[in-house]
From TrEMBL:
<dbReference type="InterPro" id="IPR036237">
    <property type="entry name" value="Xyl_isomerase-like_sf"/>
</dbReference>
<dbReference type="GO" id="GO:0016853">
    <property type="term" value="F:isomerase activity"/>
</dbReference>
<keyword id="KW-0413">Isomerase</keyword>
<dbReference type="Pfam" id="PF01261">
    <property type="entry name" value="AP_endonuc_2"/>
</dbReference>
<feature type="domain" description="Xylose isomerase-like TIM barrel">
    <location>
        <begin position="22"/>
        <end position="246"/>
    </location>
</feature>
<protein>
    <submittedName>
        <fullName>Sugar phosphate isomerase/epimerase</fullName>
    </submittedName>
</protein>
<dbReference type="InterPro" id="IPR050312">
    <property type="entry name" value="IolE/XylAMocC-like"/>
</dbReference>
<dbReference type="InterPro" id="IPR013022">
    <property type="entry name" value="Xyl_isomerase-like_TIM-brl"/>
</dbReference>
Length: 276
């Protein structure tokens, strides 16, 4: 298993500033990090300084996230993400949909977003969340399949998989290449009363909860999925720990889970052509 290709999601170290986050992720063994667009815009660092920081630690940025209503078209946050892709480098965007739109009305805007992203060499992963307006793997695939863009796919987060009631048989009919990225985490034995609150505050490290994480990973492997892997753990408990410790715990849990499942975290390439 090539654990060195694991990525540290933006939300695993969500309260760390950018230099702290990069140093902690690199020190733990992560090859990459994820960023929210606000992490970039609030860093108070030039693009050159960010680039130097990443180079110094041997880390690249796999993904960027921003929860905006992309049905409305371009906005300043999107412009910032594509600027980051051109100047610093990423692989893909993770995009959910929290605004209320009928599913068919998402197809054309998702295709348009993919087209704009393609101009910058960026992939787009549509993320289903059981508390959003695209709640299941099947609903996300309906939009992605109908939009039919070569750079459009699905972001598969294991918390959302478990809490949406997804099953391995739901992968039938979805090409393995349509899974843009995989995000590792785990769930409590019983769902909380507020899924949004639980998802953002009480996730568990991968392999340390009640989800059949190994079974899902093996089902994805057997389906032919070979997507970059992040560890994404929104956790108030993890937030109380120093960034270096939180990153170490996340990396060790992710690496052990992959090893137990017999799954490899593959390398990936950024928009600047740099391999990881």
């Amino acid at each position: 298993m090539t654990a060195e290709f694991l990525n540290c999601s933006a939300n695993t170290l969500r309260h760390a500033d950018l230099p702290t986050r990069v140093a902690a992720a690199a020190g733990a063994g992560f090859a990459g990090i994820g960023l929210r667009v606000s992490d970039y815009s609030h860093a108070n660092m030039s693009d050159g300084q960010i680039r130097d920081l990443l180079d110094r630690h041997g880390v690249r940025v796999l993904e960027m996230e921003h929860n905006w209503d992309w049905v409305k078209g371009e906005d300043a946050a999107e412009e910032a993400m594509f600027s980051f892709a051109d100047r610093i480098g990423i692989r893909h965007l993770n995009v959910p949909m929290f605004a209320e739109h009928p599913l068919p009305d998402l197809v054309e805007p998702f295709g348009a977003l993919c087209d704009r992203a393609a101009e910058h060499g960026v992939l787009v992963g549509f993320e289903f969340l059981p508390y959003s307006h695209v709640r299941t793997l099947g609903e996300a695939w309906q939009v992605v399949a109908a939009a039919d863009r070569p750079n459009g796919g699905i972001t598969l987060d294991l918390w959302h998989w478990f809490r949406s009631g997804a099953r391995p048989e739901d992968l039938a009919g979805i090409p393995p290449s349509a899974i843009t990225t995989l995000q590792l985490c785990d769930v409590l034995p019983q769902p909380g009363p507020d899924p949004t609150d639980e998802a953002r505050h009480r996730r568990l490290l991968p392999g340390q909860g009640a989800g059949d994480t190994l079974g899902v990973l093996r089902a994805l492997r057997d389906h032919g999925v070979s997507a970059p892997v992040s560890v994404e753990v929104f956790s108030d408990d993890l937030d109380t720990r120093p960034a270096a410790e939180a990153a170490r715990l996340a990396f060790e849990a992710g690496a052990l889970t992959l090893r137990r499942a017999g799954v490899t975290a593959p390398p990936w390439t950024t928009t600047r052509g740099e391999d990881r």
